Amino acid sequence: MEKLLIDDKTTKQTGPVECLGLTFPNDEERRKYFTEKLREHLQNPEFRKIEGFPIGTDEDILKLSDPPYYTACPNPFINDFIRHYGKPYNPKTDNYRREPFAADVSEGKNDPIYNAHSYHTKVPHKAIMRYILHYTEPGDIVFDGFCGTGMTGVAAQLCGDKRVVESLGYKVLDDGTILDEEGKPLSKLGSRRAVLNDLSPAATFIAYNYNTPVDAQEFEREAKQVLKKMEQDCGWMYETMHTDGKTKGKINYVVWSELLRCHQCNEENTYWELAVDPVTRYKKNITENILCKRCGSLDSYTKWERVFETYMDILLGHSLKRSKLVPVLINYSFGGKKLEKIPDAFDFLLLEKINQFPMPPNMPILPLPEGQNTKQPLVSSGVSHVHHFYIQRSLFAYSLAERCIAEGHVSLQNTLKYWLQSVGVGFTKLNRYLAASFSQVNRYLKGTLYIAPFIAEVSPVYSLTGKIKRLKNVFFLPSVKPSFIIETKSSTGNGVHESSIDYIFTDPPFGGNLMYSELNFIWEAWLKVFTNNKHEAIESKLQKKRLQEYQELMTRCFNEYYRILKAGRWMTVEFHNKKNSVWNAIQEALQQAGFVVADVRTLDKKQMTMKQMTTASAVKQDLIISAYKPNGGLEERFKLKAGTEDGVWDFVRTHLRQLPIFVKPKDGMAEIIAERLNYLLFDRMVAFHVQRGIIVPISAAEFYAGLEQRFPSRDDMYFLSEQISEYDKKRMTVKEMLQLQLFVTDEASAIQWLKQLLTKKPQTFQEIHPQFLKEIGGWQKYEKPLELMELLEQNFICYDGKGDVPSQIHSYLSTNYKELRNLPKDGPSLRDKANDRWYVPDPNKAQDLEKLREKALLKEFEEYKTFTGRKFKSFRLEAVRAGFKRAWQERDYQTIISVSKKIPENVLQEDQKLLMWYDQAVTRMGVD
Fold it and tell me: Where is the signal peptide (predicted)?
């Protein structure tokens, strides 16, 4: 694979070192100085009260940290970093202007940087680079409060690498100007600075190593020294007798199998013998019946019992039960070839000897925290402590590697720990044997602590040697000086100065997708610094965090993001979750914090996660939310105009200026920009008012009429006057518009579907009805069924054959029927053809219809207020929305809360509008 990083692999600085405006004789002196400063902070009790402060001793935190660039705790040097490198925000002189990045992104994961560590989730750094290049300039400060492995930092630094930038399809001119795929100026070549934060010490440790320049040759030399030392001390543990019975080979990996007991005759068999094809080594489908070789019974896998054994845990000092495992296959190297054999007497004697060998003192003997994932290995295999995840030989080897690294030079300790940790989980019983895989390294099921029936116990040489070669390609970045700063704490807490960040890219946890603190526990057990999960933004029954608590935590995080981001700047939120309720929780959290959503796109990582592949309803592509912090001018003006029509149109003008004007065509078709449609503009305007506690001064119909009067429209989208010429010019390059696909699931979507249908072609009830019946198959069970005629009468107008034919119907008929062209609007044949056709009313007539419809909706809402049952089984969602809006205008928050309790929880959480009114009512009432 082509290398896209710099050729000069030597990044070690031997002379004076400059750091945050201070100069030191060398890097070691820099580290000593800032370590003592960090020690002083750690001795301050108030410092340890910062939200999300990790669990660990001062010495373990200091040992893991490399201040000021990285601290395994809150970083007290972050604002020094920003003051030194950042650009102060001045609203009077600030002229920043960007549209949202309005293009779907597709970036694969088969990149040496991406694959350097097998963390649970990562966004490809090349995908993030596209956003950073679009929104920032060289030297700008980029923030990621859920940094994970630090891909945002890697992306920020690589914006200064010409070859990497050009690998995205861009062109870099001699003066550093970057041109996009269409040859238009996009940005300037140059590294950006990154401020990274995560709650997990395991994550920030990985992020630090991903972003730190390393002398690749020195790393290789030291890593090989560690392997040499390990070979001297424990190489004998990985020997096996060759088939000649005289000479020995070196073990690559050993396959272990669990034992199963036949429920008919109690015969114990290895699962390997029962369920694996001896030729292909592929496991049979567990739905197939398994034959007992002793009694001949044929039963499904679920009827066979897993065999447990009682053993003495010397480290804990008492006996325990565990799933019984036996070695069934050995893969070893001999004479330059890889061979396989069945374990023999030599191998079993060797295992007995190892089991009697004294264990090293530095291993973590820690109970697993109670959790959703941590109960899996306990139930299935009797694993209750960290050391139970290891075959004894692996535990000895891994402990020895940790000790060898700790005895080495301090400047490379974290780098070597990262190298070891990158394959660390692959040393445990979580490492599945996969016959189809070329390598058995790191073959664990991500996002779980699942122990499979077959385990591949790998040797240090087999798993770590190849990793040295791969890491050499990714252990150096364009800058000798680190261009990042990392801290470990919750994103809910204050730290960064207000209005100091130029751009935010973040990939937060989404609901209950992953239990990060549980999954990271094995890594953190060796690091000796642990996640404080009190502020972990997840859904978890054991942590007593429902969707509501998750949303509250995310709102607090986004509040902090809003505070530190400069006005008028952008935040990109990467989202992956199959639940609408979590999607709505994220959007509501964004709005509550003050952000305004301007665009939603997709990010295709090309390779899917296990849940995406195995779950039919799972979202196959991630979503990218582009949201902005309104500039100070709008906020100041809104304070003066709040609750007036002028305030409404000031917001709309500002919002339209932030939206994309034209999106790159797909397959020769232009895309409708959803945020420019009238009903979404109305929703954004309402949300902007509600989140600021201001009464919405106009109705939907008045808003739509005002849009028509004030802003030019094209293809049902609205623009500023200065934007329309650009849109028209680009629109001429395509023939058709790619219409938004509407799915009819409730009254609101049915109205939008009818509007789209009748705008193209005014039709009679008889023509509409069969089409409507085809569309309502997905009607929500809780949504009160409505007749088509009721929907038409409340939202559209039917021409009765009297007077002039309405312009909309006249335009359609004269365009599609030759004999009706050039006829007067009151012509008999034209009126006859137009009779009984339903059409979309113009904004002025729509206001009258809306008043009548709102009256009917509020009448129905009155019935819901007096409903005495526990929960509604079927109700009219639009009536509840109308009722909540009226109650909000009247500051009757109690009505919103009381009716919300009668709505099924999943419906409330999955409807963004109801959720907005409810959350605001709860906030105003101070209800828990």
Answer: none
Q: Are 70 and 486 in contact (CB under 8 A)?
A: yes
Residues 6+ apart with CB under 8 A from 171: 178, 179, 183
Pairwise CA distance, residues 23 & 145, whole Å = 29
Could you give the percent of the chain with pLDDT greater than 90? 59
- Structural domains in the chain, sorted by start: 17-213+481-614 (3.40.50.150), 218-472 (no CATH), 630-741 (no CATH), 853-928 (no CATH)
Residue 521, SS3 per DSSP: helix
Q: What b/e readout covers 321-334, taking b as 16+ CB neighbours within 10 angstroms?
A: ebbbbbbbbbbbbb
β-strands 713-714, 717-718 pairing:
antiparallel
Is the Cβ–Cβ distance between 133 and 126 less than 8 Å? no
Give the Cα separation of 31 and 19 in Å (integer). Answer: 10
User: How remote is the C-alpha of 453 from its chain's centroid?
Assistant: 31
Q: Would you call 399 exposed, middle or buried from its count of C-beta atoms within 10 A (0-12, 13-18, 19+)?
A: buried
Instruction: Of 206, 281, 233, give the one whose Cα is nearest residue 460.
Output: 233
**329 beta partners:** 255
Mean pLDDT over each residue of the chain, to the nearest integer: 88
Count of CB atoms situated within 10 Å of the CB of 758? 22
Grouping H, G, I as helix, E, B as strand and the rest as coil, residue 63 is helix
41: which residues sit within 8 A by CB, 6+ positions away? 47, 76
Place of tokens 């252990």: 475
Q: Could you tell me which of 575, 572, 571 has the C-alpha nearest to residue 622?
A: 575
Q: Coil, strand, or helix at residue 398? A: helix
CB of 493 closer than 8 Å to CB of 557: no
Print the SS3 string covering 800-816: CCCCCCCHHHHHHHHHH
Per-residue pLDDT tens digits for 908-923: 888 888 988 898 888 8
Asked if residue 854 has pLDDT above 70, the reply is yes
818 or 45, which is more confident: 45
Task: Please give the radius of gyration of the chain, using alpha carbons only, rounded to the nearest integer.
Answer: 32
Q: Which is nearest to 54 in space by CA: 524, 752, 428, 714?
A: 524
**Spatial CA neighbour of 569 closest among 27, 268, 141:** 141
Contacts 24+ apart (CB under 8 A), 728-733: 730/661, 730/662, 730/670, 731/662, 731/670, 733/665
Instruction: List the beta strands (DSSP E) in 722-780.
Output: 736-738, 763-764
| Cα separation, 569 vs 98, whole angstroms | 8
Q: How far apart are CA 75 and CA 73, in angstroms?
A: 6
Spatial CB neighbours of 647, under 8 Å, sequence gap ≥ 6: 637, 638, 641, 689, 694, 697
**pLDDT tens-digit map of 420-431:** 999 999 999 999
Q: Terminus-to-terminus CA distance in the chain, angstroms?
A: 56
Nearby residues of 658 by Cβ (< 8 Å), 6 or more positions away: 99, 100, 596, 598, 628
Q: Is the pLDDT of residue 82 over 80?
A: yes
Phi and psi, residue 254, nearest 5°: -120, 130
Question: Tokens standing for 748?
Answer: 């609101």
pLDDT for res 31: 94
Residue 639 identity? K
List the Cα angle 306/308/314 in 5-degree steps.
150
**CA pair distance 137, 152, nearest whole angstrom:** 15
Predicted TM-score (pTM) of the model is 0.86
The neighbouring-strand residues paired with 22 are: 19
SS3 content of the chain, % helix, strand, coil (to 5): 45, 15, 40
**In the structure encoding, which two tokens stand for residue 820, read together?**
């009706």
Alpha-carbon distance 234 to 244, whole Å? 24
Residues written for the chain: 928
Per-residue pLDDT at 604: 67
> What residues pair up with 599 in beta bridges, in sequence order?
626
Amino acid at 234: C
